[in-house]
Amino acid sequence: MKKLINKPEDVVKQSLAGVAAAHSDLVVVKYDPNIVVRADAPVKGKVGVISGGGSGHEPMHGGFVGMGMLDAACPGDVFTSPTPDQMEAATKAVNGGAGVLHIVKNYTGDVMNFEMAAELCQAEGIEVASVVIDDDVAVQDSLYTAGRRGVGTTVLAEKICGAAAESGAGLKAVADLCRKVNANGRSMGMALTSCTVPAAGKPTFAIGDDEMEIGIGIHGEPGRQRMALKSAHEIAVMMAEAVLADLPFKSGDRAIAMVNGMGGTPLIELYLVYNELEQICKGKGVTIARRLVGNYITSLEMAGCSITMVKADDELLKLWDAPVHTPALRWGV
Amino acid sequence: MKKLINKPEDVVKQSLAGVAAAHSDLVVVKYDPNIVVRADAPVKGKVGVISGGGSGHEPMHGGFVGMGMLDAACPGDVFTSPTPDQMEAATKAVNGGAGVLHIVKNYTGDVMNFEMAAELCQAEGIEVASVVIDDDVAVQDSLYTAGRRGVGTTVLAEKICGAAAESGAGLKAVADLCRKVNANGRSMGMALTSCTVPAAGKPTFAIGDDEMEIGIGIHGEPGRQRMALKSAHEIAVMMAEAVLADLPFKSGDRAIAMVNGMGGTPLIELYLVYNELEQICKGKGVTIARRLVGNYITSLEMAGCSITMVKADDELLKLWDAPVHTPALRWGV
Q1: Is B264–A18 a contact, with Cβ atoms under 8 angstroms apart?
Q2: Residue B211's pLDDT is what?
Q3: Which of the four pLDDT bands, split at 50, 70 and 90, describes residue A232?
Q4: How far is Cα A52 from Cα A36, in angstroms, rounded to an integer?
Q5: pLDDT confidence of residue A131
Q6: CB–CB contacts below 8 A, A to B
Q7: Binning pLDDT at 50, 70 and 90, where does residue B164 land?
Q8: Which residues of A have a catalytic role annotated?
Q9: Do B23 and B169 have their domain in common?
Q10: Alpha-carbon span A194 to A202, nearest angstrom
């Protein structure tokens, strides 16, 4: 295992300490339970928006805490659901009196623990709404899920719901918006290599030098198909067609697109994949109105990429364009 | 070779096409010769600032083209110097009548070709100043250089000089500023794995499963020492002490720091290294006043990182904070 770490059991805390030191103007990191909180939380009268999940997907979620996006993030151990006490602490820390939205990626542990935390908070008089993201078209049920996995659409939902909350929308409106983004969002990923969980010390799965896996999950869960390595064009076509056909996207639709790196794939390749996606969408009459190209929801050092498309109307585009100031996404400020 | 590409010979152009499609509001890509140019170039009366070098280091340099940073970038083939006709075309495209600064990383081919381009442009009446960046403390001479290699300080110099040019500074002042940044900047890198140049199809160098290389160059050039894999703490100490001792940085100094990923190292590890750097600097009384943590000057998919420190006074910090709007760096707008 080749990683820039000290002890495997200290990776999450020491990386969080780096986030805290680098971004003290934006976030505060609290430990035991571990949460990343917006520096000015709670914002009085604003709906709080939180998310969380296993670590190893950085910048998600801690890198998206700040003005116009998340109010707090709950980082679990690597590829391990955070615990209800983290979610409870985050909810209380960001509660400005207008309720708190939990954005939950569809993994059994995450869903169960967020439900438990929501009940605890509601029992203490904090209004909580929860929306589960399940956008991965690759598989219907998965190693860690009933139903589809929650992946890239989560990033876009956090940005859009954060903007709405910032503009003063109420809890029901922000939750409805999150459901709308999820209903309009589809993703699919692929891997060239495995990742290695620090505590495990060895690759999560074996894959041949001439093989790739299409439809992989963000923890290395099995995908749709193991096959011989294909060209970027063929890979983009396989993923984009699965994504576009599923909603389905139609000619005339506009979209926010994300070509996301899994952590070990360099930007020169991600832009090459974006070029393929742009051509495919043009061919189908779908306009990519906004986009992200880079590492946003990763799987440690896995090589590979994913494509996310969210069908977007004027409302979603306006919220997308609203100012955001977080460690990993920043514009308009 | 596992990459998201089509044909090796098409990687640079197809990746540039992705940059053009994704960032048409910021940049225009021209081909044969290949250059990435600010969309509103030339800006009348403003000093133009250009740079360039081999591809494979993305986002450098094309990702730094835009308001407040570079006016143009010249991307060569992967790990290959751009040609004088690229630099000449870029210089002409951004010449707003106030002269053009060439920021050149110290590699023999780059220096020679930028010199030739400067002569061609001067012969046509365009005033050109050139500054060579040579900040890598690892080795005195290298596989591709006489003297020290130019690495991470280049990113900071491009930001700072771009801000000065944007504010109306003249060519001599912007060039002097670039020399000041270089004089105050020091870097060192390390690798856990090799990268693979697409046209070569095999790793640039061999390295054992339990080995790392300290002082590596951004093309996989040999560093200071091959040794057994160490902890992130030990690695950060080795690199930071070499960097800090070289200037030297003294107690009371302020700095802009960059913990940079080589392309294949995930953010969770880079923030962990940043935490180590912060502790080391605090121990020596050096204040990190600003910082970047992420992938800014990469070596394709190499796993590893580098540390750059630029000693900064009020002038440099003010220029650092000035608005910038490029594909890879954006704030204040």
Answers
A1: no
A2: 97
A3: very high
A4: 10
A5: 98
A6: 171
A7: very high
A8: 57, 219
A9: yes
A10: 10
Scanning A215-234 for CB atoms below 8 A from B yields 229, 231-233
Query: Is A45 within the bounds of a domain?
Result: yes
Range of the domain at A16: 8-184
Inter-CA distances, B214 with A61, A91, A165, A297, B114, Å: 32, 44, 47, 29, 29
* A-interface mutation test, from B9, B78, B272, B290, most A Cβ less than 10 A away: B272
- Same-domain pairing of B61 and B194: no
A235–chain B Cβ distance below 8 A for any pair: yes
Candidate from B4, B298, B305 with C-beta closest to A232: B4
- Is there a single domain that holds both residue B175 and residue B251? no
State the virtual CA torsion across A207, A209, A213, A216 in degrees, nearest 10: 60
Of B2, B59, B278, which has the smallest distance from its Cβ to A267's Cβ? B59
> A215 vs B141, which has greater pLDDT?
A215
Chain A touched by B283 (CB under 8 Å): no
Mutate to test the interface with A, among B2, B4, B282 (most CBs of A within 10 A): B4
pTM (two decimals): 0.98
CA distance B11 to B15: 6
Residue ranges of alpha helices (H) inside B126-211 are: 153-166, 171-183
Distance from CA of A178 to the nearest CA of B (A): 25
Q: What's the pLDDT score for residue B143?
A: 77
Nearest to B263 among A16, A56, A266 (CB): A266
Whole-angstrom distance, CA of residue B184 vs CA of residue B302: 27
We report the CATH number of the domain holding residue B154 as 3.40.50.10440
Q: Does A36 touch chain B (CB under 8 A)?
A: no
Pairing of strands B254-261, B27-30: unpaired
Residue A161 near residue A269 (C-beta atoms within 8 A):
no
pLDDT class of B158 with cuts at 50, 70, 90: very high
Q: Do B266 and A298 touch (CB under 8 A)?
A: yes
Binary contact (B301, A11; C-beta < 8 A): no
Asked if B270's CB is within 8 angstroms of A4's CB, the reply is yes
Contact flag B4-A265 (C-beta cutoff 8 Å): yes
Task: Give contacts of B295 with chain A, Cβ < 8 Å.
Answer: 266-267, 295
Q: Is the pLDDT at A20 greater than 80, yes or no? A: yes
**Closest Cα partner for A330 from B257, B162, B333?**
B333
Structure confidence by residue, pLDDT tens digits, B220-266: 988 889 999 999 999 999 999 999 999 999 999 999 999 999 999 99
pLDDT confidence bin for B144, thresholds 50/70/90? confident
Q: Is B23 annotated in the active site? A: no
CB contact under 8 A, A330 and B330: yes
Q: What residue has token string 């133009």?
A: B48
Residues A164 and A191 in one domain: no
Q: Domain boundary residue among A154, A184, A214?
A: A184
- Helix (H/G/I), strand (E/B), else coil: B8: helix
The reply to whether ipTM tops 0.95 is: yes
CA-based nearest distance A52→chain B, Å: 15
Based on the fold, state whether residues B150 and B282 are members of the same structural domain.
no
Question: What H or E segment, with its residue span, contains residue B15?
Answer: helix B11-22
Q: Do B2 and A305 touch (CB under 8 A)?
A: no
Backbone CA torsion sign across B234, A82, A178, A25: negative
Final residue of a structural domain among A130, A162, A184: A184
Phi then psi dihedrals of residue B236, to 5 deg: -65, -40
Does residue A267 sit in the same domain as residue A309?
Answer: yes
- Average pLDDT along chain A: 97
Q: What is the pLDDT of residue B142?
A: 77
CA distance A113 to A104: 10
